[in-house]
Amino acid sequence: MKKLLALLMVLLLTFSLVACGGGEQAPTESDPKEQATAENAEAIPQIGVTIYKFDDNFMSFVRRAIEKNADGKAELTLNDSQNDQAKQNEQVEMMLSKEVKSLAINLVDPQAAATIISKAKEEEVPVIFFNKEPSAEDMASYDKCWYVGTDSSESGVIQGKLIADSWKAHPEWDKNSDGKIQYVLLKGEPGHPDAEARTKYSIETIVSEGIEVEELELQTGMWDSVKGKELMDAWLAKHGDGIEFVIANNDAMALGAMNALKAEGYFEGDKFMPVVGVDAIPDALTQIEAGTLVGSVLNDAANQGKATVDLALNVAQGKELLDGTTWKLDDKKAVRVPYLPITLDNIQIAKDCYSE
Questions:
Q1: Which stretch is the leader sequence (predicted)?
Q2: Which residue in 253, 271, 275, 309 has a CA-CA distance of 20 to 30 Å to 36?
């Protein structure tokens, strides 16, 4: 009997030790929520993004579109290159060292594309350039690089047609009745494909519409509203009412010029100066509605940002470039987002581009 009791005590003690963790515990099922979170984290790729400068009016809207379209789909490393190519090169190196799965690059200087391509190619990381187009030679040097942007000449043609149509509709704008447009032109960054094309094709299109032109001034405002105002101040002091039209490569410079014009009493009573820009940013749309800006050319920031994310996300995940999208690639490895003329008649189209 005593032996039986002793045996029972040993068995009871052994069972107690196992129950208190003295042996291996049975595996437990993982929390489904935690497992889903872990799987989602693995599925979301890292994409490195640089913007040539965050405070550029138009690029600020492209950046917002990139952030919106990447939300929940990709982890972005966003960099402000502050208009410094050396800084951008360092940012690219940093992102590559963090093993991003793809790069989305808004170049400071299009001529620096070869340097960035070389860095990315060494690590076999795909690159989506956007808004500033590298040369065809640079694009052909790497099979994993593409471009998202526009057809630069298209914006110039559309702006020129807008100017010609509005000039014909308002003969009173020809102040000296000589049948010519005496114009001043605010050019973007010298060498920038958009600046060169908009300048060239806007004037060529006006002339092709049977209107004579006379250039009073053409200088670079570097896409900047403050520089646009400074140049317009100087031109008004020099030419006064001899200026009959202000043509700007972008809305920021157009709005700067308008500030200078307003200070001289324009847009009050019968004193008017026709001004056109490019981009159709919200501040420009406000001026179109007020009747102070003749019109602009919609540079679709929303779709440029979306296309950039769509392509960068696909290649980061090892998918085909255009998989699941409606974008089309041209013979220059580029997705082209079309421009559209914007006046008071169709302003809602541009407004819709900025709606949430």
A1: 1-19
A2: 309
Distance between CA 81 and CA 131 in Å, rounded?
14
45-150+300-337 and 153-298: identical CATH topology: yes
214 by Cβ neighbours in 10 Å (0-12 / 13-18 / 19+) ranks as exposed
Which DSSP string corresponds to 211-241?
-EEEEEEEEE-TT-HHHHHHHHHHHHHHHGG
Which residue, among 278, 354, 356, has the nearest Cα to 61 in the 3D structure? 354
Compute the distance between CA of residue 251 and CA of residue 212 in angstroms, rounded to an integer: 24
Nearest CA to 179 among 188, 170, 171? Answer: 171
For residue 186, the SS3 value is strand
Sorted by where each begins, the domain ranges of the chain are 45-150+300-337, 153-298
- Residues with Cβ within 8 Å of residue 32, at least 6 apart in sequence: none
Calculate the alpha carbon distances from 281 to 11, 60, 104, 141, 250 in Å: 82, 10, 23, 35, 9
Residue with tokens 């069972």: 15
Q: Which CATH number fits domain 153-298: 3.40.50.960, 3.40.50.2300, 2.40.50.100, 3.40.50.9100?
A: 3.40.50.2300
Instruction: Report in angstroms the alpha-carbon separations of 326 from 59, 129, 307.
Output: 23, 19, 9
What pLDDT score does 42 carry?
54
- Residue 254's closest CA among 304, 314, 183, 320? 183
- The structure's pTM equals 0.80
Class level of CATH domain 45-150+300-337? alpha beta
Given a cut of 50, the residues of the chain with pLDDT beneath it are: 1-30, 32-41
Query: What does the mean pLDDT of the chain come to?
Result: 90
